[in-house]
Automatic annotation (TrEMBL):
Protein name, entry field: Cro/CI family transcriptional regulator
Pfam short name (any one): HTH_26
Gene Ontology MF term list: DNA binding
Superkingdom of the organism of origin: Bacteria
Species in which this protein is naturally found: Bombilactobacillus mellifer
Record-annotated HTH cro/C1-type domain positions: 11-66
Length: 111
């Protein structure tokens, strides 16, 4: 799938999840309904950043939340932020209190 298809599919999913029509999204976001329709019907291209931000506001989410799906939420090594946070949490659970304190000091440049 190309970026256009991924973004449009995400927009549809968010609309369905919220039981929201494109007309309602247009009202809430301040983006003209014709602009939303044009965006969806265009075979290529992606929305401008300011349009996407307004659509996200209408959906009640951040732009970061909008892009929280593969491939956009993946790191260059292929893992997602959530997967990396889980690894750090497991590591943190395996450390002793003294080890955690040393890591905290290293990360905050206290050493």
């Amino acid at each position: 799938m190309n970026d256009h298809e991924l973004i449009i599919n995400r927009l549809y999913k968010l609309l369905i999840d919220r039981d929201m029509s494109m007309n309602r999204l247009a009202t809430l976001s301040g983006v003209k309904q014709s602009t939303i329709s044009s965006l969806i019907q265009r075979p290529t291209g992606v929305p401008k950043a300011d349009t996407l931000r307004l659509l996200c506001e209408g959906l009640g989410i951040s732009v970061q939340d909008f892009f929280d799906f593969p491939p956009y939420n993946q790191r260059p090594n292929g893992s997602s932020k959530k997967e990396e946070e889980s690894k750090w949490e497991k590591l943190g659970n395996a450390l002793t209190a003294d080890e955690k304190e040393r890591v905290r000091k290293i990360l905050s440049n206290e050493i």
